[in-house]
Amino acid sequence: AFVLLAAAVGYAIWRDSASSAADPTAPSAAAPSDQLAELEARTKREPNSADAWTALGAARLDLSDFSGAAAAYEKATAISPESAGLWSALGEARVMGSDSDPMPAAALAAFDKAIALDAKDPRARYFLAVKKDIGGDHKGAIDDWFALLSDTPQGAPWEADLRRTIEQVGQIH
Questions:
Q1: 57 and 89 Cβ atoms separated by less than 8 Å
Q2: Is 157 helix (H, G, I), strand (E, B) or coil?
Q3: Would you say 11 and 161 are in contact if contact means Cβ atoms under 8 Å apart?
Q4: Quick one: average pLDDT of 83-91?
Q5: Half-sphere CA count of 49, side-chain side, radius 13 A
Q6: d(Cα 96, Cα 7) in Å, to the nearest integer?
Q7: How far is it, in rounded angstroms, from Cα 17 to Cα 94?
Q8: Which residue from 18, 17, 20, 19 is spatially nearest to 153, judged by alpha carbons?
Q9: What is the pLDDT of residues 41-80, one digit of tens each?
Q10: What are the backbone angles phi and psi of residue 167, rounded to the nearest 5°?
Q11: Is residue 36's pLDDT more than 90?
Q12: Mean of the pLDDT values across residues 139-146?
């Protein structure tokens, strides 16, 4: 349950910080399968567009196709390797796609790459604190989440979930 909450917060962070990467030409009233087909067609038309692969990754994440999302984000990071947001999105997709490991090594590597590119990347910071919590450093995780909360714009979509995570981990530990 905690991993699902963690992923929800990470996803909310991404949605707010990467909304400019979404395809503004995609019809919002279309059925998800139609939107997905259009995004897939876009990646075929624009195979070297990180934006196209990012939009496809986000759509697949929305549909809980985590391996498909990770594959799309892998393409996007290959095209735009200096984007911390893409690396943290890849890390999140890898976390969500793991059935057995709450923080797979490949996800951790993506979050580490994101932090190396941008020490303030909120999603990577969040999930690296999750890693601390999973590893038993509950106080360190909470301290990191409080630091993230202090850098979070007031009213950000993930703010309430982040506060809830801090509260729940604090109560448990």
A1: yes
A2: coil
A3: no
A4: 98
A5: 19
A6: 7
A7: 19
A8: 17
A9: 999 999 999 999 999 999 999 999 999 999 999 999 999 9
A10: -65, -45
A11: yes
A12: 97
